[in-house]
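Please predict the structure of the following assembly.
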Amino acid sequence: MSRFILLTVNGLANGAILSLAALGFVLIYKATEVINFAQGQFLVIGAFVVYNANVTWGLPWPVAMLVGIGAGILLGIVVERLILRRLVGESNLAVIMVTIALDAALFGMVLFTWGAEPKPAPKFVPHGSVHLFGDVAVAADRLWAVAVAVVVFVGVALFFQRSRHGVAMRAVADDQQAAMVQGISVNRVFAFAWALAGAAGAVGGVLLASVNGGTSLDLESFAILVFPVVILGGLDSVLGTVVGGVIIGLLVEYTKSYMNVNASQMLPFVVLVAILIVKPYGLFGQVRIERV
Amino acid sequence: MATATGVYNTTYRRDFALRHTKAEYARLALLLVVAVVLPFRLDHYWLGYLDLILLSSIAAVGLMILTGYTGLISLATAGFLGVGAYTTANITTRLHWPMPIGVLGGTLMAAALGAVFGLPALRVKGLYLAISTFAAQAIFNNRFRDWRWLTNGQFSVSANTPKIGSHALNSDFRWYWVLVVITALVVWGGVNLFRTGLGRALIAIRDQDIAAEVIGVDVGRYKVMAFAIACGLAGFAGALQAHYRNIVTWERYDFDTSFLLIAMIIVGGLGSISGAVYGAAFMTWVPAYITRIGQGIQARSSGGTPLIIEKLPAIQLGLFGVVIVVFLLFEPRGLARLWQRTKDYFRIWPFRY
């Protein structure tokens, strides 16, 4: 039983991180209909920048976090402005190819800058263990990951409900032309979506590095699990990223423990294909009625 | 040069013909001569690349049929290469059946699995479908690594060197003749596919799927069929490659290879079978060239600047990504479009349009 509780907490933590990664993915898809294959690199770069700011430059951790988030935002805006904006209206294939190539380019850049050696995990995320239900020792950083994700998602929900920019983003996602007629700058919304994705990626990356016990290039192999998450939750649903993230996170953790590591890496993708065949728009995705 | 000055067809036969002008026949003859002379002129190093280009061309033609003509994206071509390779390796080394049966088995297995992963095409399209094929790639790669019964408990499985009569196919030179004939047949089949009802239906689906449904094309069925054809050809190429290399290991069938194949068909120009071959040639050459530059730097700076040598893999990878990004920004429709624009420029010179 204690093993089960432990796995559940670990799974929830993974799910929380996956949700953060998937959040950026979904925001970009909602606003611009682009599938961002480079999302994993956003996490990796965010984690490395925070590591650099905190350890190499010796900044206090809140400042280091801000630097990381700032770098994520900057990266998102640069990518949108320099690359994706020029491809508006081009075929899906060209856009997919660009984001995959971008992934390779960013990977090369990270490898060049930080090398293949893993760096230690950020020290400021509380380590040690917390006792739950009496005797189950749970790593504290996992609980922190869940807590941070909850805070971020509450913030995002408030942003979409209350902020002018949030409402503008929803309007663009709903109907691009109508939003333009209302005087909303679609370009700015696109940039906003990419910036938010970069920021969410940086936060997710730091948590992931902490949970994984090291800042390294391997973080990306975890990040490709955003695909099952977003398909399960629905490609254009923010709520779906939370639910999908938790389900996939738990699935990975249970199968890793009760089956084996390779199976835990594969099963989320089996779920993905099954969902596409059975309920293609996911749990919360907007169903497009098109009878072909 | 090889373009006609206008359309002067007076019979349907002429209208359907693949070649209309004498210049086009001349070009074909020229290509034939080059194909025959080339292996005698190239050294061992480049001959090996030539064989790789031919092998990639087969898979690229399949992907072109799927993506360029039917409008469906597959990110899993490498996975299906692997399916073909593992199948034929197991059939030939474990069951000791002859190589043609192994290759056929690999092709059919890949086609069947391709149809399975194409099934979401019955429900979704566009980007959702692309993600389905991405999942296929992830699943295949994972299984190649994990299923030790595929490799008899080893890390790799060997595939024997096939024989034609008493000649063993044990050199790049001998392989070239086999591969060039096979590739020519595949290209010929691919070009002619689009003169049949099946091919026309696929094009109709690409151009306007709703209209295709209205005129009686069973869109779902044809999409799954397109997946089967493309993945079958990928499996075929993978099976041949297994015998060419004599060894099958899982690293060869990762996502990067799938990505390279898509780059091939984009560079070659979507919607052109011969473009798949040209794209395969170009995209096999570019990474080889980038590696060569790297080796050149390494050779020149021996002992001098260890930083560059240490960072070389990162630079190569990053450079490759940047080349693709810049290329797509510059001309999202590939080299073929660039070639067309260049031709147009000279055709209408000195006017702008």
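Residues 24-225 of chain A form one domain. DSSP finds twelve helices and two strands in chain A.
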